[in-house]
Design a protein that fits this description.
3 helices; mainly alpha
Amino acid sequence: MYISFNKEDQEIVRHLAENKYGGKKGAITEVLRAGVHLLLEKEQDEVERQKRIKRFRAMMDKGFNAGLGNRKAYEKRDDIYEDSRGGRF
């Protein structure tokens, strides 16, 4: 496989390889391999994120069952603000 980079990108790849692996043989290959794996991992994370969002939206569309059946938790909005002694907050 032949890969072509512009001069700036070549310098970046060589710099990363030198810092991470020193002058070892195959250092540039390892940097490129790590970049590909990082990109793949990021893509897989995004797929999982989208799946979680889809499940959450389905759950929200379904609603929440508070065990009240068809009756309301309160009759009037003011009922929400009454304390246990019948007074208001």
